[in-house]
Design goal:
The chain is an alpha/beta fold and about 375 residues long. It has a domain of about 170 residues: Rossmann fold (3-Layer(aba) Sandwich), CATH 3.40.50. The strands form 2 sheets. The protein has a 6-stranded mixed β-sheet with strand order 5-6-4-3-7-8. α9 links the parallel β3 and β4. α7 crosses α11.
Length: about 375
């Protein structure tokens, strides 16, 4: 990482600065070169080599764009702003080397639509200008919060450290907004669409968890009443994945109703994503005994971690008594089917309720996302009205 940074400062940045200065000098001497200052800067014999170099740079930039989109999407998923998606780990050595098929196809469709819609790179310039200057202003704005709340600097210093750059970026953005009608609307529409999707998923999950917590039975009283006349205990370990650790999972109720048995060891497992990049395995598990070989476990992961439930459970201390044999362990997963009901207030518009229901239906499997062996998973469906 450090070597790449030095290459950027020592090679890429000077070369880019010289290229821009050369284009500026060319325009001073010959204003007609405004049509394409990059290619007109070179002699005729260097035209085709420069086309090859620009093509290679475009390929490299596209790979960087995809890698950044993968990383940001996974972080958004783990922070609760997007539904689960299939994340493919493409390297056994680099944890951040991932591939998301949905993101790849989304980028393909977006790029194809932009190419067909705009028709030429010159017509895309307005969209590019709004996107870049908007990103610059947003980054500077967020830098204030990093300096003030992340690094702990006082308010006056934080304001003065970012106000100048924010004023410059705002000036650039305001000039770019003059091109909104000529194509600058495209990144604004894309950004607004992503904002609506992320906000809908975040608010929808909050409403869903509130429904689960208010309509279901509390876990401790349920277990106390259950073991007054305990059901038949069968060998093995049952792990019930639940987003509400204080509430009885629907999968447990259905298992008792249909099978009438309970495993000899029962774990109620909740996965929590923290707003830190990484957490070590020895600090990610919180174990709470509930009696009768029942345990409530919370596994915490950072937003850059790969959530791996079997690995995290395997790191639990030996004295906890939670050594797992995966061949004798069953994972029970509840699959919620969201049903929008107009008569039930949720705080969201009806179209957003339907959007949230569609996103929930298309969310990835929790077993695949948490790296649970598929042959050890029992998925039970539940309908929830919002």
């Amino acid at each position: 990482m450090a070597r790449s940074a030095w290459h950027g400062f020592g090679l890429v940045f000077p070369a880019l600065a010289l290229n821009y200065l050369g284009q500026g000098a060319l325009l001073v001497v010959n204003s007609r070169a405004i049509d394409n200052p990059f290619y007109l800067l070179y002699p005729s014999w260097a035209l085709y080599p420069m086309v090859a170099l620009a093509t290679a740079a475009t390929v490299i930039a596209s790979q960087a764009t995809k890698s950044g989109a993968y990383s940001l999407t996974r972080q958004a998923i783990q922070l609760g702003f997007l539904p689960r998606m299939n994340v493919v780990q493409t390297s056994a050595k680099a944890i951040g080397q991932i591939y998301l098929p949905v993101v790849t196809w989304t980028l393909f469709v977006a790029v194809l639509a932009a190419v067909l819609g705009f028709g030429s790179s010159s017509r895309l310039a307005s969209a590019y200008g709004v996107a870049v200057t908007g990103t610059m202003l947003t980054t500077t704005f967020l830098t204030f919060f990093v300096i003030r709340y992340g690094w702990g600097y006082n308010l006056v210093l934080s304001v003065f450290a970012t106000a100048f750059f924010m004023a410059v970026d705002a000036a650039f953005l305001s000039s770019s907004l003059l091109k909104v009608a000529e194509g600058g609307w495209f990144p604004l529409v894309v950004g607004f669409g992503m904002f609506v999707l992320m906000l809908t998923w975040l608010q929808g999950r909050k409403v869903l968890l509130e429904r689960l917590q208010t309509s279901d039975v509390r876990l401790r009283p349920f277990l106390e009443s259950l073991f007054l006349a305990p059901p038949l205990r069968v060998p093995g370990t049952a792990i019930f994945l639940t987003a509400t650790p204080d509430v009885v999972p629907h999968a447990l109720v259905h298992n008792l109703n249909h099978n009438g048995v309970l495993h000899e060891r029962v774990l109620f497992l909740t996965v929590a994503m923290k707003e830190v990049p990484f957490l070590s395995l020895d600090e990610c598990a919180h174990i709470e005994p509930l009696g009768h070989d029942c345990y409530r476990i919370t596994l915490s992961f950072g937003f850059m971690d790969r959530p791996d439930i079997p690995q995290a459970l395997g790191s639990c201390p030996a004295e906890s008594g939670l050594e797992l044999d995966l061949m004798k362990t069953s994972f029970f997963v509840s699959r919620e089917t969201i049903i929008p009901v107009a008569s039930i207030p949720s705080g969201m518009a009806p179209w957003r309720e339907r959007l949230f229901a569609a996103m929930s239906r298309n969310a990835g499997s929790p077993a695949e996302y948490f790296n649970i062996p598929p042959n050890r998973v029992i998925e039970i469906g539940t309908q929830i009205q919002i």
